């Protein structure tokens, strides 16, 4: 018996927000003071660090639960299953449904309940719940689904990562250019095939690190002081990720019994191009070996950082041969890894 991903789907919004669209923004420092650089320079510096040239925003009439449902429908179709046979629907997100041009997060009912409703699943034994685990939420949802299946509590699960971060950003903060919208979904189930999830690793660092990502005031002191936006300490997150993610990946690979030379692809949360490249470098340095060519697909340049959606969306694109120079084949060993608010890290070694 193995526990495998049998279907994937993603929703990539059609609305493209290019870097040049930020040239007329009023960016401010955290204390509200002006930045002594023209926006063209600010945007170009941003691109040189993050690699992002454009990102995607959801249509105004679509919420996180809606785009998550669209991705889920594609995964169900890809797996060729009856949705009434799904035992668990696990939806990873961070901010619930935030309607366009509103400031309130809506999580009642849960997004998983909304997705189940949208899919028109009647079976009450299909349990739907949300997971709040920062950007690593989809990976953690996959780990939970594996546990349900391994314990005999389930045979088939739907795991979704969905987010509309464009609606919780402070437009006066340069970091607002990082975030985007999107959704990715997977069907995971017990099969007679070889492979599947070979090992996993998770950790939560909260003693000093809990508030590296947080909800805070706008950089514009003239705005409503009771409204909060997603904020981060980028430098501390960068250092934290470089220290902890490669070690978690190495521990996970060791548990799996696979060798570093067996790894064909590494799907890392698309947070920052330079950070992901540095994580990859440190990971291979732990093995004193060269980095293979094309081992790490990247989507952040065009899709931005859609939090929980980045890893499942990236895997769906590669699996369906929609990324140049990247593909996965049956039997390939791949690694999923993520880091994010909490601070949480996790990794999965998976055989396709």
Characterization of this structure:
The protein has 352 residues and is α/β, with parallel strands linked by helices. 29% of the residues lie in helices and 25% in strands. It is built from 8 helices and 13 strands. Strands 1-7-6-4-5 form a 5-stranded mixed beta sheet, sandwiched between helices. It has a 4-stranded mixed beta sheet with strand order 8-13-12-11, with helices on both faces. Strand 12 (333-340) and strand 13 form a beta hairpin. Helix 2 (64-79) packs across helix 3 and helix 5 packs across helix 6. The longest helix is centred in the last third of the chain and has 23 residues, at 234-256. The two termini are 14 Å apart. The mean pLDDT is 96.
Considering the chains and any ligands shown, give keywords for the structure.
352 residues; alpha/beta; five-stranded mixed beta sheet; four-stranded mixed beta sheet; 8 helices; 13 strands
């Amino acid at each position: 018996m193995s526990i495998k991903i049998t279907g994937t789907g993603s929703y990539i919004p059609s609305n493209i927000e290019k870097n040049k669209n930020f040239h007329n923004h009023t960016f401010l420092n955290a204390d509200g003071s002006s930045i002594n650089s023209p926006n063209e320079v600010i945007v170009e510096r941003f691109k040189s660090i993050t690699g992002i040239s454009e990102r995607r925003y959801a249509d105004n009439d679509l919420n996180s639960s809606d785009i998550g449902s669209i991705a889920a429908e594609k995964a169900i179709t890809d797996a060729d299953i009856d949705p009434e046979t799904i035992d668990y629907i696990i939806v990873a997100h961070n901010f619930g449904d935030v309607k366009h041009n509103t400031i309130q997060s809506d999580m009642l009912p849960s997004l998983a309940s909304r997705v189940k409703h949208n899919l028109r699943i009647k079976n009450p034994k299909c349990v739907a719940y949300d997971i709040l685990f920062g950007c690593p939420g989809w990976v953690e949802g996959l780990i939970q689904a594996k546990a349900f299946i391994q314990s005999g509590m389930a045979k088939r699960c739907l795991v979704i990562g969905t987010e509309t971060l464009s609606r919780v950003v402070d437009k006066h903060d340069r970091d607002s250019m990082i975030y985007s919208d999107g959704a990715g979904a997977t069907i995971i189930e017990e099969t007679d095939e070889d492979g599947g999830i070979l090992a996993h690793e998770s950790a939560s660092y909260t003693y000093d690190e809990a508030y590296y990502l947080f909800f805070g005031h706008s950089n514009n002191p003239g705005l409503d002081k009771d409204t909060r936006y997603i904020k981060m300490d980028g430098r501390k997150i960068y250092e934290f990720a470089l220290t902890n993610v490669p070690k978690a990946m190495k521990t996970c690979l060791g548990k799996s019994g696979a060798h570093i030379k067996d790894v064909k692809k590494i799907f890392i949360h698309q947070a920052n191009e330079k950070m992901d490249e540095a994580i990859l470098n440190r990971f291979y340095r732990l093995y004193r070996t060269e980095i293979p060519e094309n081992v790490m697909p990247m989507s952040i340049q065009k899709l931005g950082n859609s939090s929980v959606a980045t890893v499942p969306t990236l895997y769906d694109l590669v699996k369906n041969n929609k990324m140049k120079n990247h593909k996965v084949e049956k039997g390939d060993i791949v690694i999923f890894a993520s880091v994010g608010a909490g601070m949480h890290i996790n990794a999965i070694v998976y055989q396709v």
